[in-house]
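Fig. S4 source data, part A: sequence.
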Amino acid sequence: MLAAARRLLAAVAVLTLGTACAATGGTAGSGADDTITLGFSAWPGWFPWQVAERQGLFARNGVKVELKYFDSYTDSLTALATGNIDANSQTLNDTIASVSGGAKQSIVLVNDNSTGNDQIIARPGIDSVAALKGRTVAAEQGTVDHYLLLLALRRAGLTERDVTFKPLPTDAAAAAFKAGQVDAVGVFAPFTTTALELPGAKAVATSKDFPGAIPDHLVVSADLVTDRPQAVQALVRTWFDTLTWIEGHRDEAVKIMAERAGVSEADYRGYEAGTTIFSLADNLDAFADGDTDAHLSHQADSIAAFLVDAGLADAKPALDGLLEPRFVRSLKP
């Protein structure tokens, strides 16, 4: 079922991508005003983009950006794959899944690593991943917390066949769990807050258990890299300028990000340990060649193989051009 769903999504994405490019003559930002459309959704590592817009940091770096917020993370993935936006904030595994379906995308920046804010949360009485056997687990099919669920099940000696998987959008999955309609749920912050409102609920696995497995990125269309490298460079530079601004204005930044997340400032501060924001030095290390999970080339190869094994992709995709480190390397002191 999963492979069939992935094949259908990929086929629709590639067909729509061809239609979108034919209609616009290129990527979404190739209009007369040269505006870049940058998508993001609900994740602590991506809310700094809201700060960048509010503080005029895109303009300061000479790039016009339309920041587009998606209530549905999946919709943001589809928007980039179909050419309806130029850039998006998304995970490594979801990017590789899009590439396996024919999308042409490049990772130009590591925003963060998930270090606890992706969670498998279970109702009272379920104290481990092994205890999920025979239970109903909800998550958004084919995306990051479905991937986390598969990783956790594999470590516990189980597969998805050992549970009843209920595919739901992340917000709906969290609500269903809180209402007692499923036994466990895979969600990411800030939806973890909703899920944990069920009395006695607790996380039985988190991204902290799988270091380096869930890196989050600025991903752009391959056309944008080719046609407008200066604009891509400006986006990357803006990210690091934003981190500097946040460091000097922490309270104001948290207020902006919590407002976008729809949570209290106290709840937002609670997410900080579970998302490790990457500095320029961290980016340089991640893009360097290496054979550990901290290195993107190694992690990408591992994820590509895992997606095939899990039935989320039909074949291991070619990863040439997926990683584009030149924009962060150009900022090296």
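Fig. S4 source data, part B ends here. The radius of gyration is 19 Å.
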